[in-house]
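Field reference: sequence -> structure
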Amino acid sequence: MTDASPAPAISEIQDALGRVERDRHVSQLDAELLFSARGDELDRLLAVSSRLRDEGLDRADRSGIITYSKKVFIPVTHLCQDRCHYCIFVETPNKLATKGKPIYMSPDEILEVARAGAALGCKEALFTLGDRPENRWPVAREWLDAHGYASTIDYIRAMAILVLEETGLLPHLNPGVMSWSELQALRPVAPSMGMMLETTATRLWSEKGGVHYGSPDKDPALRLRVLDDAGRSKVPFTTGVLLGIGENNAERAEALFEIRASHERHGHIQETIVQNFRAKPRTAMQNEVDLALQEYVAAVAVARLVMGPDATIQAPPNLTDAHELGLLLRAGIDDWGGVSPLTADHVNPERPWPELDTLAALTKDAGFELRERLTAHPQFVREPDEWIDARIRPHVDALAAPSGLAREDAPVVGRPRSRAAHSSPRSLNVSKGNEALLSAEKNPSGLSDAHYVDLLQASGTELDALTALADDIRFDAVGDDVTFVINRNIDSSLYGVDPEKGGITLETIGELADEAAALGATELCIQGAVPAHMPSTAYLDIVRAIRAKQPGLHLHAYRPTEITDGASRLGLPLHDYLEALREAGVDSVPGTGARILDDDVRRVLSEGTDPAAAEWIASMTAAHRAGLRSTSTMIYGHVETPLQQLAHLRTLARIHDETGGFTEFIPMPYVRLDAPANVARVAGPGPDARQTRAVHAVARLLLHGRIDHVQAAWTKLGLAESQSVLRGGADDLGGLLLDGTTRPEAGAEAHRSLTIADLERTASEIGRGVRQRTTSYGSPTPEQLAFARRSDAPPATRLQLPISERRSPLQTSRS
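Structure field:
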């Protein structure tokens, strides 16, 4: 049911081919034209695409090699909240009961399949399932509750650990749409994940009759966000397009270019699958015509042109007749995907896998050698520090050859999974030759500049000793609990913007405050410069609107730049304006915007738009003296030197000595992706793990006795690196950043929120507990604490039962 569009003229296709052959570059418009290549033009297209593929293989030292993964398929559940018109995998509860199938595979059933696969030499366990079935089917929710799991993804995580530890198979997880926090939770248990983009044709989702109509998780915008969140989370990720479901050639091209753009931002797309529609019986599309072979082959070739020579292009070998597989190799694929000697393709059960010997022979006939890879592709296996979580790296290393491909004779056996990415002991003997560390043991906040600069550059065993010492100092200062606050962000720069363009009104802001309170938030964080056309009282108006609706919420509002802007609009001295903010209902102010308190560095980072460091210092000092406490921040890992980092910390210590106004210090890594292109070119890739650990540890030392709390900026670090700094001086994870359902995009860092269960897991993996706090690090009221324990509380804020109280048969010892 491909959307019929007028076929381009042969001359247009020939012109596009000429441009591609000459320039070795394909535009989106040319890609759209080349989908229609047939006959001689198709032969020319295949010649270009296969040549590109060969160049990429040569660069990767894999000349002539086509890869595949030897795997088992584990269909954890056939229930799904979506209603895709072509899908035969999904069942209803009644159909499952009729067929004698369970709501979810049990741990024993999952292990049975995994063990059989390991015995056959498989190295990958592909977890395939429907998308969030508990959202649609009460029986799924009841099953999860009865077995002690918060969600299907929570169950998948536990089962991935089980398979890793008991069988040694490497999980590849395909649970559908995942949030940023879910990707963070799954990364330590699986070397790779995936989700098909399928199409960017929104009309197929939003219009009645479209193949994705009635399927909440098939919104292309949502799936594109998953791709970017996976990249931010450093997850080797598989995605791709499904062709022949009603999309036109322009939409096919758009989907491929969106995948390419995500990969260009993050470098994480490990393979792009080009999958052809095959009609299934008992589906709404059972009478549609399968995608024609030449149309499919042309699309594979275009995918190679779009994604480039270094990308992996996959075509499933069971969806094309065996005698035609050579055409796919001519089109430029370099991977056959997962092939199982044990389990069927549960998504396409009518299409059996080719025998591996047959696939190898067919590949050889086309002039290539078939080689086994792991679920994470070679380039990611060879860069494990960046792409593979330390807790599962031993499992990957045990199966990997030096090339990053699979070691085909490697025994596939279970082994324990490490519980934390960095598990150095709390106390570590300091090297006798390290004078800075020896001095820090005696007087952590009283070192010389030279000693602090040495420590900021520590590495290896000295870095381990530094972080262990910082961890000891943290324990003595604030104890062992990892603290957090339940909060929500509101971007005040949206106030007064046209609602059609994402703007919000005072009424909307009041609704957001109501929803935050209903979700259990104790804090609203408000940041963003109000547009210039708004009244001079705009900042105060926002505060009053919130106070009128929710007088009990703590308002953490306005950065130094907004404070200065508001005072200027009203013509008030800074102190008087801060008094006005406090009287209107502001309780504390965020100390963001500090960057590095060095004007030369600030000019580089802001392209000359940032005010001088003195303005930030003046605003913070005035806020403290007006009775408004604040956070303090530093963005590190760009163009600054260790000496400039030290000067920044010294400035914060001096301000606190004068005012006592800082509640916490938040070191924030520079994230290149978030910077303007001109800044990114100058500032480089951002800090590595060594620098991150050193900055947090030195901050704990230097600020000891002044600013008690050091926060892990989890939205920028990710949860694994947050665990690392929590073991090296940090004690707090900040706020949950609740999105809610009323305009979730109205907050900064929208769609990156955590649940208390996420925090509990993050802390428990490093042997720590969690404790809810207020903005000023006090204890919430008994009513606020009780809210988070209520069984009917929203899942974002609900505290999970202690693991010992859950009823899961196998999760308790492995979660």
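Note: Confidence is low (pLDDT under 50) at residues 798-815.
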